[in-house]
Amino acid sequence: MALKVNINTGAWYGDKEMTLNFPDNWDVSVRESKDAAALDESQIAAAFAEPIGTERIKQLARGKGSAVIIVDDLSRPTPAYLVIPHIVEELKDAGISEESIRFVIGGGSHRPLTKEEIAKKVGQDIASKYEISNHNTFSKTLEDLGHLEDGTPVHINETVVHSDVKIAVCGIIPHSSVGFGGGAKMILPGVAGYDTIAHNHQGKYKGRGRGNLERQGEEKDIRDNAEDVARHVGLDFTVNIVLTRKRDIAGLFMGDMIESYRQGAAFAREVYDTPIPREEVEAADIVIINAYPQDSDPVQVVKSAWPSGVFKNAQKVMINPASDGIEYHGLGDKMDYETYLDKKADEKIDITEDGGIRSKDDFVLLTSNFPKSKFYKSYPNGAMFESWEELISQLESLHHEPKVVVIPYSPIQLPQII
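^ that's the sequence the OP posted. Answer follows.
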């Protein structure tokens, strides 16, 4: 029995520890993943010397004139700043000048990062020395690289297309459509145009399912299409990161876009594996779902939602500060970020007054920045709180000595029912 549970919260926004206090008569268990030790600096350096399925970066880049490093955004918890200095040194050893090394934030149809946010992702030293731009999926200057045989239109960020060496840094994180993030996803959707992303995302291809390495059928799926586009573009090298519970590097798999991703995803399945007794699943009255380390972007709330499909009879309580408070996604909003901001400035916000938790079926959210009007539009039977103490007080009135399961870092946990 655990009556106090410490969790992490606020990825990119302090990475703070939070203590959850429970009533003395509650039965509380915590289901953690198997996890792995964090790599030290020497282990990170060693991984660059032994890439998977291809030459190391400085050999690939020798004789080339320019390079681009594509990095995911803050909606992903990848600690890119821990590996980027190694990539830069490899490129410089190959003879590529600092002025010819550029970075692109490959956020697909997400919002652009600010200068301060870019520094968080790549490191302040890198941010101050190199040209770094945000990909704009609606840009009029994207390069048209034609169509694949299946009809996929290939429109790609011009900086990426015109760089001689193309390198991507990404996290191998469970993803419902492609099994895991990482690999070719840094091209599609990472630096692709709106029509290319829409072709991939909106119905033509099946999803692979969260945590699956293989396609779930014979036909090509969303990941296969992304890999076809990445090959067409010429992604030379990927640096795939598997995370520890605290957002350090548990595993580093780099090299060939396909081989390094597959080896990394296999390791991620072991690290993220979370055994949960079947009797606990069936008996749970409440499941506490912590959205760390993917809890900065309100759009990403779905990345933490898998316990809803496992603990079907339990009340769902999610902890997600949604730290940036910006609920924008270009694919759904069908407009660029500047247009979105202009529209939001003129929008009259109808904030629903919350009457608290009404029943055991309500979805409950503990947050500091999630847009209130958006929450109640998406969850009409929801209840939103800023205070853990108030939330628990209301749950007490509905549940008598409940059995509670805490999932402490849901986005990077894969349930194994035993």
